[in-house]
C-alpha cells in the first residue's frame, strides 16, 4: 500500500491517496476517505446487489473483528480470506478491532488481552490470538490490537495503562506480522491512545516508533457507538492538535466512530485522512434519513422546506450517559437528530416528497417519505434498506464534496454551510 | 357479459393430467400460468426491493387488505394513486379480502349476515368489515385481481355452519359485485367454499359460476385439514370450474403441493412459506430445505444450489450465509431472493414441461429428487393417480406413453 499526500491546506486539511494494494492494484482511494462500515462482513441491510445500487465505485470496507471473531475458524478453513468468504471480493477491506458503530462496554481489562463483546458474550483476545485471526481473514489492511478504553472521565491510571498495553500489543503484533508469511506485506495501522492527556498521547507516539506502522488510528477519545456522537470539540481539539503535530506527515491517520458531520469536518481540517460510515448507519438504525447539506454545489436544490426544529442535546456527564444508553438506545435527549429527519414521525404519513429533495439516490428517485414512514411504522425490513441506501449515498457524496472543497480551498465554506443549517434547525 | 380486464389464453393442455399452461393478461403485466405469487403483506416483500423481484421475472405479487386497510389505510393509498405507485411495483398485484386475517388473527371476530365484526387491535374499538367495505378498500389499493369477502370457516369444522357459510359466501359475492367501483381495471374473483363436503362444494362452485366473473378461487383449504381431504376437494373443484378461466388455489406453496395441484388443474398459488422460512434462515432446494443455521453448513463452501441462477447463489456460500442467518438482515434479503427464485423456477419448469408435453416425466423426476427413498406422501400418490399417474409404476407408465405417441 502506498500513501501520498498531494495537498496540505492552510488549515492542515490534507488531500491524498491510498494506492497499490496487492489484491486490487488498480484501486485508487482518495483521502479524506470514507470506509464502508460492515457487520458480519456485510454493509448493514445491504447485499452486494443493493450496495451496487448505491455505488458502483471502488470502496474499502471496514470489517470489525468483534463481529467476525466467532467465525474466523471457518474463514481459515475456506482459505481465501474474508473478502471472498463474504462474497465481496471486489472490495478491499480493513479489519478493525472493535465495531466503532456500537458502544464498547467500559472496563474488563486484563493484563495480556482485551475484551471483545460478541453475540456469545465476552471473549478475551491476546495479541497472538488476534494475529492468528487476522491471518485467517487475510485483510488488505488491519489495525493493531488496542486498548482504547478511555474517555474524558478516565482516571490518570487508566489512561496510562491504555498506553502501556497498546504499545506492548503493537510491539507483539509487529513482531508476529513480520514472521507471518500471510501478513508480512499487509499494511498495519498502529493505534495512538492516551485519552485526553497530551503527555500520554506523545508518550504513545514516541514508544510506537520503530514498529513499522503503515499509518495510525487515533483511538481513546470515545468508546464507540453513541458515545462518539457527543464528543466535546473543545476538549478534543488541543489534544488532537498536539497528537497530529507529532505524527509523521507521510502516513495516513484514521479516526473511527460515528462522529457528527460538523466534528468530522473539524477533524478533516486538523489532518485526519480516514473515517468510517458508522454515522449514516447509526442514524438509519433509528429511522433517520440524512438531510444536512452535503455539498457546496449550487446544482443541488437548496433545502427550501422548513424542517422540524431540533433541540440541542442535553449535556450529560459521560458516565451517566453511558448508563442511560445502556437501558434505552436512542430515545433519550442526548441523541442529536439535527442532521436527519425522523421517518418514524407521523408528520410524514402523507408526505409525498422524497427523503431529500434533489437527491439522486435510488430511494429518493423512487419513493416518498410517506412510503418509508409506512415501512418504518410497520417494521418492514425494506424500511432500513431504503434509509441506509439514502444515508450511504448521501455520505459518500459528502466525502466527494470534502475532497473537492479541500482542492478548491473551500472547506471553511462547507463548514459554514453546515453550521448555518444546524443553527437554523435549533430555533 | 362484461368485458373483464383479464384475458386467459390456454397455450397447452397436458394430455395425461388436468394441468395446462396459459397466458393471463392483466392491466399491469402478462402472467404465465401456472404461477406462484409471493406475498408482500404490507406493501413490501419483506427485505427486498421491487427491482430484485423484477430481475427474478416475478409477474404478480400479493398484498393483504386487512393489513393495508389498517396501515397506511385506503385514503392514503387512494391519494397516492394506489398501491402500485406507493410501493414502486409496476407489475400485477392481487389482494385478498381481509376476511381470512380477521378470522385467523383476531380472537374476537364475530360473523353476522352483515359482515365480520371485530375489535380493532390498534385501539380496541368495534369495527365491521362488510363485503362493501372490503371492496371499497380493495378499490383504493387498486390491485389487478381482488377477492370477494367470503365467510371463512376453519376446514376442521363440520355441520350446518359450513353450509351457512357456503350460502353466505354467494350472497356476499353479489354484494361485492354490486359494490365494485372499478370493474374495468380490477378483476373480482369469487371464492369456492363448502368445507370438506363434496355436495356443498359442488353447490358453491355452481352458484358462483352463475355470476359474471373472470376467474375463480378455491378457498377454505390449507387450514389444518388432512391432506387426503385437501386434494379431493381441489380435484372436485377443478372438475367443476371452467377450464378457460384461471383457478386460484389459495394458501398453497410447498413444492410438492404445487406440482400435484398443477396436475389437478390449478393455475395460481400463493403462500407466505417461502419468504417466511427465509427469514428463519431456511433455503429451499430440490431435495427439500436447508436450515442454514445448522453447524453442518459452517464449512460448506458451495452455494445454496449449484444449479440456481439467482444473484445469491452466484455470489454467496452456505458457509457465509450460516454466519449471518437470523443475525444480519442482509441474510433475509439474500435467502428471500433465493427462495423466490426457487419457487419461480419450479413454476417455470412446470410450464415448460406442459408446453413440451413432458409434464408427466417432470413429475416423476421431481418426486424422485424430492423423495429419493421413494417414500412419496400417500396423499400425493393418491391425488396423482386420479390424473392417471402412478408414482410406483414408472416403467409401465413410460411404455404406456410411448404407445400414445
Automatic annotation (TrEMBL), chain A:
One Gene Ontology MF term: tRNA-guanosine(34) queuine transglycosylase activity
Gene3D superfamilies: Queuine tRNA-ribosyltransferase-like
Intracellular or extracellular location(s): Cytoplasm
A cellular-component GO term for this protein: cytoplasm
Main location: cytoplasm
Residues binding Zn(2+), per UniProt: 359, 361, 364, 390
Gene Ontology BP term (one): tRNA modification
Highest taxon above the source species: Eukaryota
Pfam families, per database record: TGT
Cofactor: Zn(2+)
Cofactor note: Binds 1 zinc ion per subunit.
tRNA-guanine(15) transglycosylase-like domain location: 12-416
Keywords for this protein: Cytoplasm, Metal-binding, tRNA processing, Zinc
Quaternary context: Heterodimer of a catalytic subunit and an accessory subunit.
UniProt function note: Non-catalytic subunit of the queuine tRNA-ribosyltransferase (TGT) that catalyzes the base-exchange of a guanine (G) residue with queuine (Q) at position 34 (anticodon wobble position) in tRNAs with GU(N) anticodons (tRNA-Asp, -Asn, -His and -Tyr), resulting in the hypermodified nucleoside queuosine (7-(((4,5-cis-dihydroxy-2-cyclopenten-1-yl)amino)methyl)-7-deazaguanosine).
Family: Belongs to the queuine tRNA-ribosyltransferase family. QTRT2 subfamily.
Protein name, UniProt field: Queuine tRNA-ribosyltransferase accessory subunit 2
Organism of derivation: Daphnia pulex
Gene that encodes the chain: EOG090X08JG
From TrEMBL, chain B:
Alphabetized InterPro entries for the sequence: TGT, TGT-like_sf, tRNA_ribo_trans-like
Catalytic activity: guanosine(34) in tRNA + queuine = queuosine(34) in tRNA + guanine
Gene Ontology BP terms: tRNA modification
Top-level taxon: Eukaryota
Matching Pfam families: TGT
Keywords: Cytoplasm, Glycosyltransferase, Metal-binding, Transferase, tRNA processing, Zinc
Binding, substrate: 96-100, 150, 193, 220
Domain tRNA-guanine(15) transglycosylase-like: 17-370
Positions of Zn(2+) binding: 308, 310, 313, 338
One annotated GO molecular function: tRNA-guanosine(34) queuine transglycosylase activity
Keyword Transcription assigned: no
Region (RNA binding): 251-257, 275-279
Cofactor: Zn(2+)
Active site residues of this protein: 96, 270
EC nos: 2.4.2.64
GO CC list: cytoplasm
Subcellular location: Cytoplasm
PANTHER family: QUEUINE TRNA-RIBOSYLTRANSFERASE CATALYTIC SUBUNIT 1 (PTHR43530:SF1)
Record's function text: Catalytic subunit of the queuine tRNA-ribosyltransferase (TGT) that catalyzes the base-exchange of a guanine (G) residue with queuine (Q) at position 34 (anticodon wobble position) in tRNAs with GU(N) anticodons (tRNA-Asp, -Asn, -His and -Tyr), resulting in the hypermodified nucleoside queuosine (7-(((4,5-cis-dihydroxy-2-cyclopenten-1-yl)amino)methyl)-7-deazaguanosine). Catalysis occurs through a double-displacement mechanism. The nucleophile active site attacks the C1' of nucleotide 34 to detach the guanine base from the RNA, forming a covalent enzyme-RNA intermediate.
Family the entry assigns: Belongs to the queuine tRNA-ribosyltransferase family.
Subunit and interaction comment: Heterodimer of a catalytic subunit and an accessory subunit.
HAMAP family xref list: Q_tRNA_Tgt (MF_00168)
Protein name listed in UniProt: Queuine tRNA-ribosyltransferase catalytic subunit 1
Organism: Daphnia pulex
Amino acid at each position: 500500500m502506498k500513501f501520498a499526500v498531494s495537498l496540505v491546506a492552510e488549515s492542515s486539511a490534507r488531500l491524498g491517496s491510498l494506492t497499490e494494494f496487492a489484491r486490487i492494484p488498480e484501486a485508487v482511494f482518495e483521502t479524506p476517505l470514507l470506509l464502508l462500515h460492515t457487520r458480519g462482513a456485510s454493509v448493514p441491510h445491504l447485499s452486494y446487489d443493493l450496495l451496487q445500487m448505491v455505488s458502483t465505485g471502488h470502496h474499502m470496507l471496514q470489517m470489525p473483528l468483534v463481529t467476525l471473531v466467532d467465525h474466523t475458524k471457518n474463514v481459515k478453513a475456506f482459505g481465501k480470506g474474508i473478502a471472498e468468504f463474504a462474497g465481496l471480493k471486489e472490495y478491499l477491506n480493513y479489519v478493525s478491532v472493535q465495531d466503532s458503530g456500537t458502544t464498547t462496554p467500559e472496563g474488563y481489562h486484563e493484563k495480556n488481552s482485551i475484551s471483545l463483546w460478541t453475540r456469545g458474550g465476552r471473549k478475551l483476545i491476546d495479541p497472538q490470538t488476534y494475529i492468528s485471526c487476522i491471518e485467517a481473514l487475510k485483510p488488505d489492511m488491519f489495525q493493531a490490537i488496542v486498548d482504547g478504553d478511555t474517555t474524558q472521565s478516565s482516571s490518570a491510571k487508566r489512561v496510562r495503562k491504555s498506553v502501556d498495553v497498546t504499545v506492548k500489543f503493537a510491539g507483539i503484533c509487529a513482531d508476529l506480522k513480520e514472521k507471518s508469511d500471510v501478513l508480512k506485506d499487509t499494511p498495519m495501522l498502529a493505534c495512538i491512545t492516551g485519552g485526553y492527556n497530551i503527555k500520554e498521547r506523545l508518550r504513545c507516539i514516541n514508544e510506537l516508533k520503530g514498529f513499522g506502522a503503515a499509518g495510525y488510528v487515533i483511538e481513546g477519545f470515545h468508546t464507540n457507538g453513541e458515545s462518539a456522537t457527543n464528543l466535546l470539540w473543545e476538549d478534543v481539539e488541543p489534544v488532537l492538535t498536539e497528537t497530529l503535530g507529532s505524527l509523521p506527515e507521510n502516513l495516513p491517520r484514521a479516526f473511527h466512530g460515528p462522529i457528527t458531520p460538523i466534528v468530522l469536518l473539524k477533524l478533516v481540517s486538523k489532518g485526519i485522512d480516514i473515517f468510517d460510515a458508522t454515522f449514516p448507519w447509526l442514524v438509519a438504525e433509528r429511522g433517520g434519513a440524512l438531510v444536512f447539506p452535503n455539498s457546496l454545489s449550487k446544482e443541488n436544490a437548496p433545502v427550501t422546506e422548513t424542517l422540524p426544529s431540533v433541540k440541542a442535546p442535553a449535556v450529560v456527564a459521560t458516565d451517566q450517559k453511558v448508563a442511560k444508553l445502556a437501558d434505552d438506545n436512542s430515545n433519550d435527549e442526548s441523541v442529536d437528530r439535527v442532521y436527519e429527519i425522523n421517518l418514524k414521525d407521523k408528520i410524514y404519513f402523507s408526505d409525498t416528497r422524497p427523503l431529500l429533495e434533489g437527491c439522486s439516490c435510488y430511494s429518493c428517485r423512487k419513493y416518498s417519505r410517506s412510503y418509508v414512514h409506512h415501512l418504518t411504522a410497520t417494521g418492514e425490513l425494506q424500511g432500513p434498506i431504503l434509509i441506509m441506501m439514502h444515508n450511504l449515498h448521501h455520505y459518500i457524496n459528502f466525502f466527494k464534496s470534502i475532497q473537492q472543497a479541500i482542492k478548491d480551498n473551500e472547506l471553511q465554506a462547507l463548514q459554514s454551510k453546515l453550521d448555518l443549517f444546524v443553527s437554523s434547525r435549533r430555533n | 357479459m362484461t368485458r373483464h380486464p383479464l384475458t386467459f389464453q390456454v397455450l397447452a393442455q397436458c394430455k395425461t393430467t388436468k394441468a395446462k399452461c396459459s397466458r393471463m393478461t392483466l392491466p399491469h403485466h402478462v402472467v404465465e400460468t401456472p404461477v406462484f405469487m409471493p406475498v408482500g403483506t404490507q406493501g413490501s416483500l419483506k427485505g427486498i426491493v421491487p427491482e430484485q423481484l423484477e430481475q427474478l421475472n416475478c409477474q404478480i405479487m400479493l398484498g393483504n387488505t386487512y393489513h393495508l386497510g389498517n396501515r397506511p389505510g385506503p385514503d392514503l393509498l387512494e391519494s397516492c394513486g394506489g398501491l402500485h405507485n406507493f410501493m414502486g411495483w409496476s407489475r400485477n398485484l392481487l389482494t385478498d379480502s381481509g376476511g381470512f386475517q380477521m378470522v385467523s388473527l383476531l380472537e374476537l371476530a364475530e360473523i353476522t349476515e352483515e359482515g365480520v365484526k371485530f375489535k380493532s387491535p390498534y385501539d380496541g374499538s368495534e369495527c365491521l368489515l362488510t363485503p362493501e367495505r372490503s371492496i371499497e378498500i380493495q378499490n383504493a389499493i387498486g390491485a389487478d385481481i381482488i377477492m370477494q369477502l367470503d365467510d371463512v370457516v376453519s376446514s376442521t369444522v363440520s355441520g350446518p355452519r359450513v353450509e351457512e357459510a357456503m350460502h353466505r359466501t354467494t350472497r356476499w359475492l353479489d354484494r361485492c359485485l354490486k359494490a365494485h367501483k372499478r370493474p374495468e381495471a380490477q378483476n373480482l374473483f369469487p371464492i369456492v367454499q363448502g368445507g370438506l363436503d363434496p355436495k356443498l362444494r359442488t353447490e358453491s362452485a355452481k352458484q358462483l359460476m352463475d355470476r359474471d366473473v373472470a376467474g375463480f378461487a378455491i378457498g377454505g383449504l390449507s387450514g389444518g385439514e388432512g391432506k387426503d381431504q385437501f386434494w379431493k376437494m381441489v380435484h372436485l373443484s377443478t372438475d367443476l370450474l371452467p377450464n378457460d378461466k384461471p383457478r386460484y388455489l389459495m394458501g398453497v406453496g410447498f413444492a410438492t403441493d404445487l406440482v400435484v395441484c398443477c396436475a389437478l388443474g390449478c393455475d395460481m398459488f400463493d403462500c407466505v412459506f417461502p419468504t417466511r422460512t427465509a427469514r428463519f434462515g431456511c433455503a429451499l432446494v430440490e431435495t427439500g430445505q436447508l436450515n442454514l443455521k445448522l453447524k453442518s453448513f459452517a464449512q460448506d463452501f458451495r452455494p445454496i444450489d449449484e444449479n440456481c441462477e439467482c444473484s445469491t447463489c452466484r455470489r454467496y456460500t452456505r458457509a457465509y450465509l450460516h454466519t449471518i442467518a437470523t443475525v444480519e438482515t442482509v441474510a433475509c434479503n439474500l435467502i428471500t431472493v433465493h427462495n423466490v427464485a426457487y419457487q419461480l423456477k419450479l413454476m417455470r419448469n412446470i410450464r415448460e414441461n406442459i408446453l413440451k408435453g413432458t409434464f408427466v416425466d417432470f413429475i416423476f423426476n421431481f418426486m424422485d429428487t424430492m423423495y429419493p427413498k421413494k417414500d412419496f406422501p400417500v396423499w400425493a400418490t393418491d391425488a396423482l393417480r386420479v390424473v392417471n399417474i402412478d408414482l410406483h409404476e414408472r416403467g409401465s407408465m413410460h411404455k404406456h406413453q410411448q404407445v400414445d405417441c
